[in-house]
Amino acid sequence: MRRVLDTVVGGLLPPLVAVVAAMLATGVLIAAFGGSPGDFLEVIFSVPNDRVLLTIINQSAMLSISGIAAAIGFRMGLFNIGVEGQYIVGSCAGAFFAGSGLVAGPLNILATLVVAAAAGAAYALIAGLLRVYRGVSEVISAIMLNYIALTMAGYLVTNYGQASGYTFTTERLPLDSQPLGFKIFADAPGDVWALSSLALILGIGYWFLIARTRFGFELRVTGESATAARASGVNVKRMTLATMALSGAVAGLVWMPAYFGSVHTFGTPENFQAGLGFLGLAVALLGRNRTLGIFFAAALFAFLSGQSNNLQSAGIAKDVIDITQGVTVLAVVVAYEVVGRRRAKTEAERVSRQLDAEREGASA
Amino acid sequence: MRRLSTYGVAIATCGLILSACGTAADNDTDDTEAAPECDPVQIEGDAKVSLAYDVGGRGDQSFNDSAYAGLEKAVAQFGLTDVSEGEAGQDESEDIREERLRNFADSGHNVIVGVGFAYSEAVDTVAPEYPNVAFAVIDGFDPTEDDVNCNVAYLGFAENEGSFLVGAAAALQSETGTIGFVGGVNNTLIQKFEAGYAAGAEAVDPDIEILSTYIEESDPAGFGDPAGGQAAAEGQYGDGADIVFHAAGFSGTGVFDAAVAADKLAIGVDSDQFLTAGPEQAQHIITSMLKRVDTATFGFIESVVNGEPDQGFTTFTLADEGVGYSVSGGFLTPETIAQLEDYKAQIISGDIEVPTEP
Predict the structure, then answer these.
(1) What is the CATH number of domain A49-306?
(2) Which of these three, B136, B157, B178, is where a domain ends?
(3) If you average pLDDT over residues B117-124, what whole number do you get?
(4) pTM
(5) Measured between alpha carbons, how far is residue A100 from residues A96, A97, A149, A172, B32 in Å?
(6) Minimal Cβ distance to A166: which of B10, B91, B141
(7) Residues of chain B neighbouring A54 (CB-CB closer than 8 A)
(8) How many CA atoms lie within 13 A of A183 on its CB side?
(9) pLDDT above 70 covers what percent of chain B?
(10) Are B139 and B243 in a shared domain?
């Protein structure tokens, strides 16, 4: 009973508090600039129409994958801020490969997933190798690599893609490689993209890997204490490289649902959604690196973004969504810290009480 | 047992993907048919206009504001009562853009203008769903050219022609014989500015040296990066240029800052930037290449009000005042202006053909 209560208080309360705090902060801000917080809350909590629901589901899926990519790094104490860059490189490589039609039909989808994941992993390994063999902080190198990725993708598409309007894109995905989505609303245009189901598969895979495999155990141990891990025979260098590669591979897959589901080509900025990689870091933080938490956080972020058009109709700048999302992440970090300290304190008190009782028992 | 159930779940989810293994080719119905003849779009009731802005929205003192000026003029002239506006966010997904347009249409708006070529794909997707709504995309293109939407107008500009004139102005007034061009993003649209600018300058002085820099290769951040604009312009001033033309949106303010710092000159873009820039910057802006987004927006709304909505591609040129140059501030000498008017007449008459690619 106590444990259940602990889980509820420790696990669920902080995000809830964070969301409420974020809503309040946003409301105060809107009021400060002469808007109506009431309108904001009304729009935010209105039920989205079917089309927006589809968008929310698909965006949740991509955000979840991005969150998983970030969480893999976080669990071992690596701050892979390069998820964004790996996401760009994976998307670009995947789209070039898929559009070339080297593999025909549905098999093209599987092959493209492999290419995208491999490209993301390879790109992540640059930061990993720099860290392991040259001691370069993966945060610094990955930030730089993010910029390089975007510029490089632009260069490749401009020089090896085809003109489309004023921009360039990769060749379009052949029709026979375009999977049909799940048509859950008959009347609404659009569907749940076939590869959005990747999020479920990767989510379960992530949970299994972390909780049920030796690799996952070593990864967590290294995350808790690299020294302890080394002492107990874990090859920390190899773990770092493997974790970066895995994180990058998942990051490389983030955009695949959108690519195969609706966009069918790649080119910045119109035919790509930059920024999903960065959002993944926030999603992982908010979701505490747990599969369910990540799904929840991704859904929340997607939901907020999905409501942004309605906010504009109500005369509220859509940028407030960014504020809400930002404050949510900030608040959740603070909330977990508070809960963590409280728990440590109660634990310490419980132990000292128990010790006191034992001492009294001994002296009696 | 527990392990078994885990695998069960894994297999079930793999099935999810497989169930979607049919592909679009299986139910591909729209084989190559001849493009249908287009009848004018019939909108229902009075014109209710919606403007969907590009990133930056109203208040950018440039592109989006210009579209709004066109809307204002239409509101005043035709007594429009129901207008609405929306704005794109940074890094938003295509779905959200489409949803913005559908929202407008669902709330009864029957004239929808996407401001900026980023709306091309979204309009192409949404337009068929609302055959009685007249759509327009400023700077737009049709991503599916063999499948024409009759209710979409693509409003383009002959930026190369306007740029030709400011290029000529730069060459006429340059003292060093070196001029510069700063583009926001290296795409074919901005290359059109560069091509016209270079052609105009070379028409005046075949030996002129033209420095060209793009802030970003493909990242749209190049249009919102004043520091990048400043660095690019500083480099060109350092290399001897005394006049720099920018086609870089908001990054242009950085170009103007560089002009102030180096005490050199600059040329603005889209709207008359002598009027919108700060007082210190304005003293260095000798002219601006005007791209009359307001004219295009107003013209489209007018065509709808008159019962014959524009369709297909319309290019606004020098001939119909869709592009031009500004003379505010009095920096252009009367001789320069006379020369520019001469070029203008030659372009309109077709004697000069301005290239669109550098």
Answers:
(1) 1.10.3470
(2) B157
(3) 90
(4) 0.83
(5) 6, 5, 21, 8, 22
(6) B141
(7) 95
(8) 7
(9) 90
(10) no
